[in-house]
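Tokenise the fold.
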Amino acid sequence: MYNEYFTGAFPIRGRVSASPDPSPGRQAAGFSRAGRASSHINRALRELRGTARYRLGQAAARLIGPRSYATELRPQEISSVLICRINARMGNAVFLTPLIERIHELLPHACIDLATAYPQGEDLLGALPGVRRVIRFPYKGAHLVWQYLAAVRRLRRERFDLAIDPAPNSTSGRIALMLARARYRLGYATDCQWAPLTHAVPLPQAMMHQAVQPAFLLSRALGADCDPREVRLWLPLEPREIEAGRAAIARAIAARGLGGMPQAPETPEPTARAFGFFAHATGLKDVGPPYWHAFWDAFLALQPEAIPIEILPSPGSAPTDPRVASVHFPSPRALTAAISTMRMFVSADTGPMHLASSTAAATVGLFRASDPALYGPLKPRDLALDVTRYSPRAAAECCQRIWRESTVEAAGRGGEPMPSPASKGVAV
């Protein structure tokens, strides 16, 4: 499976959405007062869990007593780095990519090991420049204890010049950091920090995206600049991967005969009109089939030449909308490559949304239960919408504006999708 407070319009990296539709007759489909109340309850429960973790960390830090930390690392002393982020979500794994890129830029000769619980971590992160090993920790299963001990043995097999705890409040990351054989240990200095750090950076007071925090931590420790507005998700792709993704999208479109959707005359090739979407979110992040059906009815009335393509989480998953083409990709890298060939991608707040934001495809995130200031897509052309305030029609109108912008850009390139910035290392 791929899965894993602002209100109204969310400015994400310079992209500000239109005002939400206030008309009661066009209220967001499927989100009654009870639905909004459940969203608030979910946020309150998440805050409660976070508060409990924070208080336990505070208690442990007080028990250990005050510590002194160094604040600056010397790059010439670091040739091996361990990143400790024991989390099983795809999104949190993708959020490590700006840190990996930053290590590769600031410490180009350093080898990088990653300790993660994301099951497909090797596929997603193992090919990134500088990465040597991905050490996978278990997160569930019958033999959890024995698998965890085996992962710890792999972790302790190597000595590291630097081990990094990139999250300000991750208990599992601090445990891995404590178990690692490292000369230096880097993390955020907070009143709930109990890990045996040698170097620490104060947590910024301003709200910071979850993908920005790790890169900011390393940059500050090495005395390098880090502009949070310039941080991007980073998943370099090979040309062969992109061509395979393009071919898979073309086959999915051909198999459905464009999904029975109308075409405008003299439109570009089908793959240049692909608008991907992922609708299989879990829990309160799920916006529901009625919203998706209404969204596509509205968007295709505005842009009939667009070709929706649904990304399925597993081969046996039922499509949300049987009218459109659908396809499943067995690996996150294959999915990322396919998305990189699309004109746009819209998704609930799940892992595929973050994969899409690592590509040049304009990405729209539909949020219901989490804060896009912390978890939203990062590119300037990306957009985050609160579906409890945006009707499907209003969301479709926002997407149409982005679609038209990307259509004009593609026309200037002869119909080809926008290439990813060379500085991010994505080949197209």
